[in-house]
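Hey team,

Filing this mostly as a record. A colleague (T.K.) asked me to run one chain through the structure pipeline before their review meeting, and I want the input and output archived in the tracker in case anyone asks later how it was produced. No errors, nothing strange. Just documentation.

Input sequence:
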Amino acid sequence: MQNIAIQAKNLSVSFLIQKHGINNFKDFVITMGVKSPFEKKNVLKNLDLTIYKGESFGIMGRNGCGKSTFLRAIAGIMTPDEGTLTVNGRVAPLMALGVGLEPELSGYENIKLVATLMGFSKKELKNSIQTIIDFSELNEYEMEMQVKRYSSGMMARLAFSIAVATDPEILIIDEALAVGDMGFRQKCANRIEEIKKAGCTIIYVSHHFDEIKNICTRAAYIENGKVEKIGAVNEICDYYEKKLSNK
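Output structure:
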């Protein structure tokens, strides 16, 4: 287990989805009196996957296959129903745009909140705040603004800057770099390369083959909540491309 960063065995994860129209509290009460307004949706189904420390690992698959749910389980956002999920290392999650940011809080307040949830000590937080702000390139006015008033690019800047403020042990990136100008995206790519060289485990989700190939060495293709194929990143990209062409 010393060389393992993430290990999922027979991992199953589900969540509740609304199956009846509920527009207000009255609808909710009426519906609850008849039958449950929710149904269980099984997303991950007995998934098995091992990712090693220091590895840059890509996860690919069609929308709805379970990629983001798996990452949320690793980040501790979702709880598995069955199976085991072992995570060895502090996780820095850079999830789909805006996830993890509190819209009613300012940029400054989000830095403190998210960094604390990521496990930053008081000393690490104090030493990292200015680094985060500088990397994000957000000005003082923008940092004092509520995040709900941010553009998508500003959200991406803030979220990425918090996630990579220190060298994380496990960095999760879920399609979050598709937003923002070219200059900042290149800046992010350079920072990811620095983190890779420092020995960080990177788990990267993207539909863009070039991005996956540039960052990852190994990858998995997920279909219907299960790992269908694991292999070298070029092999998995080719496999996914064939799947897309045969749909």
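Quick notes for T.K.: Strands lie at 4-18, 38-52, 56-60, 82-87, 91-94, 170-174, 201-205, 218-223, 226-232. The first helix runs from residue 25 to 34.
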